């Protein structure tokens, strides 16, 4: 059982603190403020790429890494890693997040009735969609999370994101860069039972490393890492429930050191919040976000559909691939929908 009262199989229990490595010492479950401060002091990338940087860890995804990714395509099979954007999504209205509303502006009925006013029999259909940019498969931009009023690279949050949007680090800056080597870490399959981790299970560095070793794959500079927990498969089977905002397996706060030290460019999961929920402190909300986005400068993806890709990786034993996951270049946005494409 975890300290939060979550029942997990014995072989899934996080090692006792006395047996754990030193990086766990940044976590004091009674002191999220102090634990976050210690992690920030140790893992901050502020100034690493200059005071005017707007890309964060995407700076690590360079031309050489993209050439490497191109060489990973062997079979030419491709996978969309996006959930569908429709009214049947997981959102329940938290902080005004809703599922997409899709409305037709012109239809085949309009064309058949001759209501469109076009010449020589031509007709057409048109539509519009209204949705929060983070209602389904998406990236968190660098302007999404602040730490004590500071945005990425130490900028004052009020000078970065205003009612006009993200004036400095909007996701449009990232749009040309998010293509390179992808790596799947199917923690649910390696560590879990029947391919799934239970809600509330914290994925530590040890589990990430063990999964990579089991897959025979490396993780390093400029990679985009996809972590499958199996939660999406479970909610598709049992219903959305509290998928959007409720308990979930996810990255442990103690994985901050691994996220920083491996120099990955981006990470995405099949869960709503990327990190374990309930969080590992007695009173906290998304503390790993508070370190990873404004301090490490890490691009974080959530609610990715990794199921078909994971099945293929398990079948052929290859857990690396070319991955393209460009955000929509929405000027000033702090997040973006994405349809990631993995090619093997």
Automatic annotation (TrEMBL):
Name of a matching Pfam family: Cyclase
Positions of region (Disordered): 1-20
Biased amino acid composition, Basic and acidic residues: 7-20
Name under which the protein is recorded: Cyclase family protein
Residues that span the membrane, as ranges: none
SUPFAM superfamilies named among the record's database cross-references: Putative cyclase
Alphabetical list of InterPro entries matching this protein: KFase/CYL, KFase_sf
Top-level division of the source organism's lineage: Bacteria
């Amino acid at each position: 059982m975890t300290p939060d009262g979550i029942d997990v199989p014995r072989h899934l229990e996080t090692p006792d603190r006395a047996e754990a490595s030193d990086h766990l010492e940044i976590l004091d479950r009674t002191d999220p403020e102090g634990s976050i401060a210690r992690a920030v002091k140790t893992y901050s990338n502020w100034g690493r790429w200059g005071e005017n940087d707007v890309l964060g860890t995407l700076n690590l995804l360079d031309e050489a890494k993209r050439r490497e990714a191109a060489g990973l395509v062997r079979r030419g099979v491709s996978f969309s890693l996006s959930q569908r954007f429709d009214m049947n999504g997981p959102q329940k209205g938290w902080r005004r997040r809703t599922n997409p509303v899709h409305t037709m502006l012109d239809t085949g009925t309009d064309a058949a009735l001759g209501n469109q006013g076009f010449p020589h029999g031509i007709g057409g259909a048109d539509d519009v969609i209204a949705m929060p940019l983070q209602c389904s498969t998406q990236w968190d931009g660098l302007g999404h999370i602040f730490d004590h009023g500071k945005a990425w690279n130490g900028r004052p949050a009020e000078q970065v994101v205003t009612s006009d949007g993200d004036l400095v680090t909007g996701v449009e800056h990232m749009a040309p860069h998010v293509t390179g080597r992808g790596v799947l870490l199917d923690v649910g399959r390696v560590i879990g039972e029947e391919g799934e981790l239970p809600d509330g299970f914290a994925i530590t560095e040890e589990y990430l490393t063990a999964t990579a070793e089991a897959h025979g794959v490396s993780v390093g500079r400029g990679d985009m890492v996809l972590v499958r927990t199996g939660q999406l498969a479970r909610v598709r089977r049992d219903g959305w429930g509290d998928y959007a905002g409720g308990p979930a397996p996810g990255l442990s706060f103690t994985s901050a050191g691994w996220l920083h030290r491996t120099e990955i460019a981006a990470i995405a999961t099949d869960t709503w919040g990327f990190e374990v929920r309930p969080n590992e402190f007695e009173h906290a909300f998304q503390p790993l976000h508070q370190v990873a986005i404004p301090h490490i400068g890490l691009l974080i993806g959530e609610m990715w559909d990794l199921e078909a890709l994971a099945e293929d990786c398990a079948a052929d034993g290859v857990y690396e691939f070319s991955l393209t996951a460009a955000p929509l270049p929405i000027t000033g946005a702090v997040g973006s929908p994405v349809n990631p494409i993995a090619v093997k």
